[in-house]
């Protein structure tokens, strides 16, 4: 079995190193706050605006991307993938002097040749296998989100130790850290989010919802059946695998799972998954995404608008407004939850 690193296996340390977290979005806020809480020296590199103000409010040291990159030994790039190259060229590269570490949470730009790092720095990735907001939330609850690490360039001879110490610092070694390559991380992450976790899932949920509503069933009922309950079922799979989930459902549901599941996701679906993987491996997907951004996202924006107007979203917003506990884990909703709990 592959080596999985946990806290007790990691001896490397980031002591004496200054870590610049570039970007303060989903991953950025989590890495910065988790690293600070585990005793590390963190500066957030960001442009003036909402994220800058938020990082300051959260008690972090804040600087421009250029300044943070200049003072740091380890520079973690947590900007949106499609924006990294421009910011890297203008503000990070000039400060990336020999001996520093350039780090990513996804291999996209290095693997697809958008960022070509200089040869005298360590380059590695530490990629949490979960959304940034959950990287922070699970950390605060004493748990962690697993992560992958990969070394692309090891000039110091210490890149693996530094990567593992970083993964430990953000709490991922509480859950398990696996070694990979930039190629494997990039291709599997893109595949997972497109075919299963995000694209596959939202399409499955919408198709189920639409099937019920088009057959004349109540949209609110269809929302509970196809979206709300999904979390409860997935929680059981997260805790105990598919068999654990099947232990909790009725035998009737389990029989339906066995006989109807493969009718929904069949050999044709798998063949299309293979096509999706091929587009990722050949760079076709990356090229399309980069061009879409160069054109100011015409297709992305149109689809996003349509999706936001889907009936399942409208129904869901109304139903969730009556269930404040659903958002209890989200900090920005704490006040709302507390006040409604008093009522
Ligand atoms: N989202 C996730 O959970 C995961 C992401 N990753 C990877 O992590 C990386 C970061 O992704 P993610 O956290 O989603 O990114 P976000 O979209 O959440 O990042 C937004 C942040 O980037 C800042 N930003 C955007 N443009 C600029 C700019 N030109 N100059 C300075 N700051 C800028 C924003 O600042 P402002 O407020 O000023 O706009 C904001 O702080 C990516 O490589 C992604 O693939 C990996 C695993 C999971
Ligand atoms: C599943 C989407 C993801 O890959 C992630 C949260 O891990 C991302 O890019 O946001
Ligand atoms: Mg991912
Ligand atoms: Mg991803």
UniProtKB/TrEMBL annotation:
Pathway: Amino-acid biosynthesis; L-valine biosynthesis; L-valine from pyruvate: step 2/4; Amino-acid biosynthesis; L-isoleucine biosynthesis; L-isoleucine from 2-oxobutanoate: step 2/4. Substrate binds at residue 250. Its EC number is 1.1.1.86. Mg(2+) 1 binds at residues 189, 193. It comes from the Bacteria. It catalyses: (2R,3R)-2,3-dihydroxy-3-methylpentanoate + NADP(+) = (S)-2-ethyl-2-hydroxy-3-oxobutanoate + NADPH + H(+); (2R)-2,3-dihydroxy-3-methylbutanoate + NADP(+) = (2S)-2-acetolactate + NADPH + H(+). Keywords: Amino-acid biosynthesis, Branched-chain amino acid biosynthesis, Isomerase, Magnesium, Metal-binding, NADP, Oxidoreductase. It is an enzyme of class 1 (oxidoreductase). Its cofactor is Mg(2+). Binds 2 magnesium ions per subunit. Residues 181-326 form the KARI C-terminal knotted domain. One of its GO terms (cellular component) is cytosol. NADP(+) binds at residues 24-27, 47, 51, 132. Mg(2+) 2 binds at residues 189, 225, 229. Residues 2-180 form the KARI N-terminal Rossmann domain. GO terms for biological process: isoleucine biosynthetic process; L-valine biosynthetic process. Belongs to the ketol-acid reductoisomerase family. This is Ketol-acid reductoisomerase (NADP(+)). The lineage of its organism: Bacteria, Bacillati, Bacillota, Bacilli, Bacillales. The gene is ilvC.
């Amino acid at each position: 079995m592959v080596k999985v690193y946990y806290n007790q296996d990691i001896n490397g340390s980031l002591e004496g190193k200054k870590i610049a977290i570039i970007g303060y979005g989903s991953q950025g806020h989590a890495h910065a706050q988790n690293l600070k809480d585990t005793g590390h020296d963190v500066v957030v590199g960001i442009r003036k605006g909402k994220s800058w103000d938020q990082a300051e409010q959260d008690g972090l040291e804040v600087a421009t991307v250029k300044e943070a990159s200049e003072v740091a030994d380890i520079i973690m790039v947590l900007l949106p993938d499609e924006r990294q190259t421009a910011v890297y060229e203008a503000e990070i590269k000039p400060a990336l002097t020999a001996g520093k570490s350039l780090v990513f949470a996804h291999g996209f730009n290095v693997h697809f040749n958008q960022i070509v790092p200089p040869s005298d720095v360590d380059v590695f990735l530490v990629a949490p296998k979960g959304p940034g907001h959950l990287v922070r939330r699970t950390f605060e609850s004493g748990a962690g989100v697993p992560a992958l690490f990969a070394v692309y360039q090891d000039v110091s001879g210490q890149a693996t130790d530094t990567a593992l110490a970083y993964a430990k610092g953000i709490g991922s070694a509480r859950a398990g850290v696996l070694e990979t390559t930039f190629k494997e991380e990039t291709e599997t992450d893109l595949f997972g989010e497109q075919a299963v976790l995000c694209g596959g899932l939202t399409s499955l949920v919408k198709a189920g919802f639409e099937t019920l509503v088009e057959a004349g069933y109540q949209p609110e009922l269809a929302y509970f059946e196809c979206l709300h309950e999904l979390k409860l079922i997935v929680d059981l799979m997260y805790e105990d695998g598919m068999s654990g989930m099947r232990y909790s459902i009725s035998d009737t549901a389990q029989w339906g799972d066995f006989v109807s599941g493969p009718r929904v996701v069949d050999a044709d679906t798998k063949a299309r998954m293979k096509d999706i993987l091929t587009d990722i491996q050949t760079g076709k997907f990356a090229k399309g995404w980069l061009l879409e951004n160069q054109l100011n996202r015409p297709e992305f924006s149109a689809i996003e608008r349509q999706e936001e107007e889907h009936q399942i979203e409208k129904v869901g917003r109304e139903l969730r407004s009556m269930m404040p506990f659903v958002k209890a884990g989200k900090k920005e909703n704490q006040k709302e939850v507390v006040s409604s709990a008093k009522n």
